[in-house]
Amino acid sequence: MATIIPLLNTTQIQGLSTQAIVNLTTEDFAALSSAQIAALTTSQVSVIEIGDIAAIRTSVISSLTTDGVSALTTDQMVALTSAQIGGLTTKQAAALTTDQVAAIETRDITALSAGA
Q1: How many angstroms separate the CA atoms of 70 and 26, rounded?
Q2: Distance CA 112, CA 42 (A)
Q3: What are 90-99's contacts with CB under 8 Å, separation 24+?
Q4: N or C: which end of the chain has fewer CB within 10 A?
């Protein structure tokens, strides 16, 4: 079944309940555009399931707002791929909390340094 995510505008994305975000599939997260990623609220970001985090395309991860980055849980940080961590901007990396940085695996620190 094809995802309807590409058909949703940013206002519609922001209007999704946290339960709706939880119910999104890996396919849905893979289909999110840069504008849609940027539209996610902190509440929405914090409930993205661990299994869905890696599906967010590296090319759009840098569109997450700094507040969105700060809303990532430590478990979500661990679930990010090295490529996704490397895709964070300097501004996003600066928004990381101490707990988030501590959660980043050693193999990903190099990617963070290279990306940011």
Answers
A1: 22
A2: 22
A3: 90/116, 91/66, 92/62, 92/64, 92/66, 92/116, 94/66, 95/66, 95/67, 95/69, 95/70, 96/69, 96/70, 97/70, 99/74
A4: N
What amino acid occupies position 46? S
Predicted TM-score of the model (pTM): 0.88
Q: How far apart are CA 90 and CA 84, in angstroms?
A: 13
In which band, very low, low, confident or very high, does the pLDDT at 115 lie, cut at 50, 70 and 90? Answer: low
Which structure tokens are listed for 46? 């914090």
Percentage of residues of the chain with pLDDT beyond 90: 81
Residue whose pair of structure tokens reads 């996003």 in the numeric block: 92
Residue type present at position 102: A
